[in-house]
Amino acid sequence: MRYRGQTRFDHQSRDLDAVVLVNLGTPDAPEPGPVRRYLAEFLSDPRVIELPRLLWWLVLHGVILRIRPRRSARAYREVWTGAGSPLLVHTADLAAKVGRVLDPTGERPLAVVHAMRYGRPGLPEVLRGLADRNLRRLVILPLYPQYSATTTASVFDAVAAELRTWRRVPALRFVSDYWREPAWIDAVAETVRAHVADKGLPDRLLFSFHGIPERYFRNGDHYHCQCHGSAARIAERAAIPRDRWQVAFQSRVGREPWLRPYTDETLAAWPKAGVRRVAVVCPGFAVDCLETLEEIAIQNREAFLAAGGERYDYVPALNAGDAHVALLADLARRELAGWPSVDPAWSGDAEQRMLAARAAHARALGAESTP
Prior knowledge:
The protein is α/β, with parallel strands linked by helices. It contains twelve helices and eight strands.
C-alpha cells in the first residue's frame, strides 16, 4: 500500500489545528442526474442500509435509483435557493462564523471548515486539503446532536478510511454527540419560547426527529433514547406542559418498521382528536434542509390542514444563529484545549531555531539525493 504524503513538504511551515463541521450532504443541483449520484453514494453506505450487499445493490440500482431521483429532484426544487442547497448554505455559514469566534484575528494556525459525508465538499477531499497545510491536530464535529450509527458512526468510518492512507496521521478528537449540552438545550428551547411568545401556545408541540429502522434500535443504537431525552429537556426548559408535546419520527424509507410514532401519521390523526393548532420543531437537524423545509414545512403542513387542522407552524432549525455558533465554538474550544496551542519550547527564538533546523535538514537530504 502506498501512503499519501507531501512530496514538496515545506519544513518551515507551521503546524495546523483544524475543526471540521460535518453534515450529511446534498446534491449539487435539484435535477435528477445530480440527485441520482447523491442518493447512490448515500444509500450505498452500509451504515445507512444494513442489508446483505448484493441484495441491496440489486434493489438500489434496479428500483430505487430508477424512480426516486426524479421525485426527490422535484422536492429539492421546492426549497432550493439562489445561493444553492439550504443545507450547504447554512452549514458553510455556520463553519465560517464558528471560525471567526475561535480565531477573530485570523493569526492563529487554525482552520475551521465544513465537509459533507456524501456529496461535496466531500470529507476526504477536505481532509486532504488540510493535510497539505501541515495538519497536526484534528477535531471532527458531526452536526448531529444525537448519536446514531447511521450518521455519526458513518462520519467516523469515513475519517478513519481516509486517515489510514496517510503517512502522517494527525492527533484526532471526535465529538460523538452533544444533546446533553445545556447551551444546545437552551438554544433550541429559546426558539420554542420565541415561537410561543409570538404565536401563542399551540394545542400540541411536535418534536419530529429523523427516523431509523426499529431493527437498529433493537440492536443497540442509542438514537431513540437520546431523541426522547432531548425533547424532554427542551420542553422543560421552554416551559411546555407535558400534555402539550409529543415525539415522532419522520423520513422513513422502505417497508420495514421504523421508529414510531410516525410524524405524518401523527399529524394526520390529530385533527380528528380535536387538535387544531400545532407547531413542529426538529431538534435533530442542526440546519434547515430538505427534510425540514419540504417534508415538514410543506408536505406535512398540507396534510394536517387537509385533515381539518386550522394552524400549522414550523419552528426553524438553529442554522447559523448566534446561540448555535457560540455552542459549537465552545465545543470545539474544549476539544482543542487539551492540546497546547503553542508548545512553550517553540515560542520566540526557540521556534525560529527549530524551523531553521528543519529547513537545513531538508536541504541536506536534498543534497544527498542529488547525483
